[in-house]
Amino acid sequence: MAIPVIAKAATAVATDKKLRNIVLGILAGFLGLVLGLVLTLVYILSTPITMLTSIITNPDILAVVLQLKTEYQYLLPGKANGNGQFAWPLDAEYKLDRSDETNLFGERVHPIYGDVRMHTGIDIQAPDGSNCYAIGDGTVVYAGMNGGWGNTIILNVGKAKDGKEITAFYCHLTSGSWSINAGDMVKRGQQIALTGATGSTQGGHIHFEIKADGEYVDPMLYISDSDAALSGEIDLSKAEMVNAQITAYCDYGTTSSGTTTTANRTVAGYPSLESGTRIYIPVRADQPNGGVYVVEDRGGAVDEERKVIDMWLPTEAECLSWGRQYVPIYVIQEDSATKKQRIVDLGGYDFR
């Protein structure tokens, strides 16, 4: 029954031009509607991905994100890496044992009382009687007994590069091991006391705290245990911290300063970096050079605004692994004569 009806309708459409145009118009409209819906769906699904891709690959946006990350790093738990601007509070041989979580800043099981509580500083293992040093130029706020923290020295070392007022606490010190008092001035690297076992402690360490604008923070955000900083090779207290875009290269040749590009030493700097300037890259601190590089060249695409830097690495595999990264660096402040002499010492042109 249905087939004759369909056949009759098809015949009518085929023989009636006006009816045929109406049917074709309806079909075209329907197909157009379906196509429009499909394209709209594709657009809705793909646009966020396209926008997200453009955002995460935009160097200007990435630079802003890095700036915010650096400025508010103290809010990010587990991101402190010991590459801050202030000096290490003990001798270089005594470093923070990061493998033992009870030494670190944050919640932990208290080694004496056995309950979970906030550890407001770090514990650096060192024999009783080890030297303690001022992490920066500053003023003694307090020196004396401080309950469970034992003998404590508190120093105000001024503002950090993020603008926060920094106060350092040295706890469990040996009685009578200091000769400074509240109000006295101290210099960065000055020996101020000896580690001890006063207060609630199991001995063999110093409990060290930092407050930034009155709030406890991970001290490893502000002090440095990098070998280059500890050895005195670089002085981060006078360095300028900037966020840089660093691209890795492994091709070799002669630089614009006359030196030969050398892996883990040579960088091409943005225009305001004078040849011979040393920069410290904290994320490269574990490399043989301790993360310290020398500006020996200028790159064709080295951009001042985005702080673009080209860095030479030993192998293609390392270059591919590094690629291009946005990281904080320290520009070591030295006079021009020192920088020019460094280029000469590296076999470059004599600009003196």
TrEMBL record:
Q: Which domain of life is it from?
A: Bacteria
Question: Which terms are listed as keywords in the entry?
Answer: Hydrolase, Membrane, Signal, Transmembrane, Transmembrane helix
Q: Where is the M23ase beta-sheet core domain?
A: 117-219
The EC code for this enzyme is 3.4.24.-
Q: Where are the transmembrane segments?
A: 21-45
Q: What GO cellular component entries does it have?
A: outer membrane
Q: Name one GO biological process term.
A: peptidoglycan turnover
- Please give the Gene Ontology molecular function terms for this protein: hydrolase activity, hydrolyzing O-glycosyl compounds; metalloendopeptidase activity
The 3D domain covers 266-332
Keyword tRNA-binding: yes or no? no
- Tell me the PANTHER family matching this sequence: L-ALA--D-GLU ENDOPEPTIDASE (PTHR21666:SF289), PEPTIDASE-RELATED (PTHR21666)
Name listed for the protein in its UniProt record: Murein DD-endopeptidase MepM
Q: Which gene encodes it?
A: mepM_2
